[in-house]
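Thread: Modeling a multi-component assembly for a lab meeting

Hi all, long-time lurker, first post. My supervisor asked me to bring a structural picture of a complex we are working on to next week's group meeting, and I have zero experience with this. I have the sequence lines for every component (228 residues in total). Could someone generate the structure of the whole assembly? Inputs are pasted exactly as I received them:
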Amino acid sequence: SAVISQKPSRDICQRGTSLTIQCQVDSQVTMMFWYRQQPGQSLTLIATANQGSEATYESGFVIDKFPISRPNLTFSTLTVSNMSPEDSSIYLCSVVGDRRSEAFFGQGTRLTVV
Amino acid sequence: AQSVTQLGSHVSVSEGALVLLRCNYSSSVPPYLFWYVQYPNQGLQLLLKYTSAATLVKGINGFEAEFKKSETSFHLTKPSAHMSDAAEYFCAVIEQGGSEKLVFGKGTKLTVNP
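Re: Modeling a multi-component assembly
Sure thing. I ran the full set together rather than chain by chain. Output:
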């Protein structure tokens, strides 16, 4: 199993500003995943963060808006840039366990943009 | 790309009635399949998973799901609904080969009527 520490747990931010979310995993993993859950919606994958290479973004998400860092095998950050109220969501990081038998999630960051 | 379809964004049942939540996947190669539950304002909780072992999988809270390759389905059932089962349910899939990313269905909101 994997334990993921994610912070902050929640924040209220002004529009036009940026917020960086951090995720720390208690074991080394090749890939880390970032998701967004908008109010009343399912989880949507934003990007896959690989150590030593640029993140791979899903359709509809761009690096300028959601820059990701992955400096080592246990840590990643997601920045939500130039925020607007539409960015108000829960953001989660995730890793997949051995043999893909389970996914582990951070506690989530509940972001409100005002 | 791998995808998951959950038929019915809302399902309403009476307390004590059968719960059936539908999930179909798109891959020709059977993936790993998961059901998650999310209670209001809470995080995701893993209900059960299929990882190429037994096709009938039993999970927590009396839920079970049957993997049917011929129907590319992994429907979630519970013989008798309880008021506490009211929540959002998400089906998710990880490919056996290729990307490790977990892809979620759009979710089904279960309402249990007294």
